[in-house]
Design a protein that fits this description.
alpha+beta, Glutathione S-transferase Yfyf (Class Pi), Chain A, domain 2, 4 strands, about 55% helix
Amino acid sequence: MLKILGKASSINVRKVLWCCDELGLPFVREDWGSGYRATDTAAFLALNPNAMVPVIDDDGFVLWESNSIIRYLASQYGDGAIYPVAARERARVDQWMDWQATELNNAWRYAFMALVRQSPLHRDEREIAASIASWSRHIGILERQLAVTGGYVAGEHFTLADIPIGLSVNRWYATPLPHPDYPAVAEYFERLGAREGFARHGRNGIA
């Protein structure tokens, strides 16, 4: 059976858990990370030299990096419904997943660490303001995309891209900062809320 290493509160672990729900894929999960088993041990570093969760072990196949993990799971166990086989359709999904992992994540990191994690290393008011502005600007990019598709980030139907994007939108709403009026994003958030996997692992009170 698939084994997932990582605490359930981690946003990146939650990507994997939600993906498994969408695929109807059984798994066992072990708590690793801050507050649980340490990831800087030799045993864990042999699985992931970055000492980060999540890591999966799928019958001896070990993989890290959350977006790579969910791509693998959808390819290995899915039917193409959430991760298309056709090259152009798949590329559109990958485009938004990569955007989330790079542009969007970099935008919110400082503000989130300051406002939610209360990190003593993130107290520069100018940096906080700049991060909030960048975060809102990037959510504005998503707003325009959703206004075009009328449904989900990569098109009319739910895809793998909506897992990292949906969790990022949840984090945006859960962070105490001014939220511009983005009606398409708000409708998208409600649409995702109807999915059991998102209710369990996304819109569950955890940022």
